[in-house]
Every structure is written in C-alpha cells, then in structure tokens.
Amino acid sequence: MIAVLVMSLLGATLALPPRDGGNHWAVVVAGSNGWGNYRHQADACHAYQILHRNGIPDDRIIVMMYDDIANNEENPTPGVIINRPNGTDVYKGVPKDYNSEDVTPENFLNVLKGNKEAMAGIGSGKVLQSGPEDNVFLFFTDHGAPNLIAFPESELHAKDLTDALQYMHDNNMYKNLVFYLEACESGSMFHHHLPKDINIFATSAANPHESSYACYFDEKRETYLGDLYSVKWMEDSDTEDLKKETLQRQFKIVQHETNTSHVREYGDMSMKNMTLLQFQGGKMDVPLTPLPPYPQVPFDAVPAPEVKLAVLQRRLKVARTDEERSEITDLIKQEFADRQMIRDTVETIVRKVTLDEDQADLVLKDRTRDLTAHDCYKRAVSHFRRRCFMFNVYEHALRHLYTLVNLCEEGLPVDRITGVMDQVCIARN
Question: Do 119 and 129 form a contact (C-beta atoms < 8 A)?
C-alpha cells in the first residue's frame, strides 16, 4: 500500500509542466462567521499568504471573509490569526475585498463571472478579470450539506456554482482552473455536476455523504485553528517546491494525510500533471523559498459538526471552579437539547409530508441519495432555513438536509413540503 503511494507520488513529480503564458488569478472565500468558526477564516488567511508569497499580486487575489475574528473580543492576541498551534500570524496584509454582509453567494458568483457592474459600490469591487490564457485558483472553506455550501445568512447550491463555472468557460475567463473545497459533504458540489471537459480540476475535503474534520485545538483561544484537509494542502504548499510539485502529487499527499474523511478529485484529470506554481504562485522566474518543515503536533481532528460540543467538553475538563463547571455543563445540555429539537422537528415534518410510514422511514434513513430535483431542494432548503432553523445559529440543522433531498427525489410537491414546515415550525416557536 505504502509502496504504491510512493510510486504514484514519484511518477507525478517527474511530469513536465505545460507551458504557461498567461496571468494567475485567485479567489479565496471563508463562508462563515463567529468565533466558533475561527478555523475557516484562519484557513482563508493562510491560503492568501501562500498565494501572495509565491508571486500572485494582490490585484489578482480576491478575498471574501466576514472579518470578525482578528479583532474579536474573544481573541487573546488582537489583530492576529494563526492556523496551527504556536503558528505565525496569517492575518497581516490580507486584502479586505468583501467583508461582513458582503459575504454572500450572489457576490461570490458575480466575482467569479467578472460582473463589475453588479459589484459596483460593494466592498473593493474587485472581480475576476481573467482571460483565455490565464489560470485561476479557487479556495472555499466553510460548512456544507448535500449539494450546498453555506454562507453567513444563506447558501450556495451546486447547480448555481456549476452554472457559474460553465459561464466562465463559455466566456473564455480561464485557460485552466483549480478549485479546492473544504466543507462537509463537499464532494456533492462536484459529483455528477462538474463537467470533465471544461478544463477544471477540483478536489474536496470529503465525499458527497460525510463530514470534513476540524483540527488543531488551541487551549488559549478555546477553538480549533484549522480544518484538516485545508491545513494539509497548505502546509504541503508551504514546504514544497511549487515549481516541481504537481496537482496530482499534492492530491495524493492530502488524500493520504487526511485520514478521517475521503478526499476526492473531480473534473479534468488531464490537468493533474500541472505544477502547483501554475495556480498557487506567479511565473516560473519568480524566486521561491519554501518554508522549513512544520513540527509535529498531536492529532486531534474532530468531525466539523461536533466542534461546538468538543470545545465545550474540553473547556469542562480544565474548568477550575464549580460555577464554571456548572455553566459549561448547562451549555452542553443545551447543545444536546438543540440537537434533539432539530431531530424531532425534522422527523415530524417528514412524517407529515410523506404518504405512509414506509416512505417516511426511507426518507429519514437514506443519506446517500443523489439529487436531481434541484429546484425543489433549493426552495425547500431556503424555506427550512427561514422558517425553522437559521444555519448560522443551529449549524447541526445542516446535518438533516439529506431528508429534503429525499423528499424532493420522492416527487413530493415542494408546496406540500414548505406548507408542512410552516405548520410544524410555527407551532414549535
């Protein structure tokens, strides 16, 4: 097994990179907010530092993040964000293109499609202005669910992302594009969606049906500093020669070291022998200085949906007073109560919408169904978020969206689904 991995890595390294005559562009997005989601903005800031250090100028890097972490009242080091234990500051110098309420799916898609008119007066107004000879690198990190990735107040669906990528291809906005995606069930954003013939290579932190993982718990900050897939690709890019390492080699390394979820690859596999520098850096003549290897740290990865509970349990272990222990214990009980409330609400909705018990049981149990009823699912998810559980408050509600996939795939009318949500959720509130 190890021998096969080593041989595949060596084979990828020996590949000669294609000629690269255009500019390199990048878009980096952290889709969450709040101190408990520290790791997403830390990932995004770290990604920016890699791209900037390796020669992509700031006018061709677009950063979208809420920017409520560095100067958060819970930050013991104001103005500083780190992405690993005892790490260096990754926040300094990060462009503030789109922050706060500007972090939306609509703005992200307009940035990708180069829609300057739509972005006029919003943030920096920067959009991709790449052309047919340019390479583009995209990195997104946040929560996810089947066929969607989350933003602070809403979500982006796989079909809408795919349509934007297709638009970019059809309008000659890139020569080659690489997309790294960190989120639970992130594979569902590309699986059966991303075409194989539009010069896009994508990797995801997880397959379409599983969680991604957080890592690097920091006792001083009482939060996780990074996401496993993200820190693995970034620490590899930090310490390797981007002129030599290929996309294939990095994928194999990250897949091997992210041993908690199944890292997946999608799209155009003919691109895999291109070098990292062709997407994560500037031109070949830019001098590069890889960082020294990172010191080993204890492995502490936890599934992203369990982060809130894991943090509370860690805080409980080190609590010094009875009052503090009582307060944290109450928060843990509330977390379990919230999860049970979400489960009960979803089950009630499903049993009222479905036609019989067998159908209800199938909807509640099957977590692996592929989505084809995109319009139904999009409407159902939006209604569920607005009328039942805001995802940025009740993040665990994202874990139950597979039931909405199943209801839509069963052919149940979306008006029936949303009507039952109104009945159940209004009664609960």
Answer: no
Q: Output the DSSP codes for 76-126.
A: SSTT---SSTTPPP--TT---SB-GGG--HHHHHHHHTT-HHHHTTSTT--
Mean pLDDT of 253-270: 97
Q: Is 388 a catalytic residue?
A: no
Q: Which one-letter DSSP state was computed for residue 37?
A: G
Q: Where does residue 282 rank: exposed (0-12), middle (13-18), buried (19+ CB within 10 A)?
A: buried
Span 23-34, mean pLDDT? 97
CA distance 156 to 150: 6
Cα separation, 364 vs 330, in Å, equals 29
Structural contact between residues 222 and 312, judged by C-beta atoms closer than 8 angstroms? no
Q: What is the pLDDT of residue 12?
A: 39
Q: Is the pLDDT of residue 8 over 70?
A: no
Of 205, 152, 161, 208, nearest to 185 by C-alpha is 208
Per-residue exposure over 40-50, b if at least 16 CB sit within 10 Å of its own CB, e if not: bbbbbbbbbbb
Distance of CA 175 to the CA centre of its chain: 24
As a whole number of angstroms, the distance between CA 173 and CA 11 comes to 31
Res 98 pLDDT > 90: yes
Alpha-carbon distance 32 to 65, whole Å?
8
Asked if the model's pLDDT at residue 228 lies above 90, the reply is yes
* List 45, 184, 215, 388, catalytic entry: 184
Q: Is 115 a residue whose pLDDT tops 80?
A: yes
pTM for the predicted model, two decimal places: 0.93
- What residues pair up with 64 in beta bridges, in sequence order? 29, 98
429 pLDDT band, cuts 50/70/90, is low
| 374 catalytic per annotation | no
Which one from 40, 52, 143, 383 is the annotated catalytic residue?
A: 143
